[in-house]
Amino acid sequence: MNRDYWPFILLMPSEASERIRFLQALFSSPTNVEIIRLFDGAAELCQKDIMLRLGHHSNKTLILALKKLVDLNILEEHQRVVRSGSRTVRMKCYRLSEIGRWYRVFLEDVKTLDKNTLSAVFRELVSIFMGKVALLRDMLGASYTELVKTVVSSALESIVRRTLATPPDTVVFGSTALDIYLGEKPMVFSGGSGANCSC
Length: 199
Known about the structure:
By secondary structure, the chain is α+β, with helices and mostly antiparallel strands.
């Protein structure tokens, strides 16, 4: 590819019609994007804070956008009880859902994110993606061996393509043995074979 592309993986509804509705609703207004981008390191924002920070929009526009983002499961809504003197006030507050966190990263320039954020996002991405791939494997009736072989070989091919772009300082000929344990939490270890083999 000549242009700079990044492999974003976005969680969306599985049904095509719902996926289209989701994308149309999410990107139908720039206000939705502005609200999502407000959650820059903020775990929670209340409706009042959002209205103050996005004062160039009417309250009605913001309330409709917040309802839409909750409906799309981008935001989770809850009420916070605050005491003001002798009065008790209920405030609507919002936090990004698991899906919302992905869209928050999607709407940012990856190069501006700090390494800790990217590292956490990468680990969560791999975990979610592989969980969904495993479900797809069940639907297709493919074997776990085939799934692991595809993932590992794709990763190795990618490493080789990247390293061939620059002349190597050292060339090594040999083999790598990995022990892959497919349990509740798959684990990969290097350094030995599960059984003796001749290659």
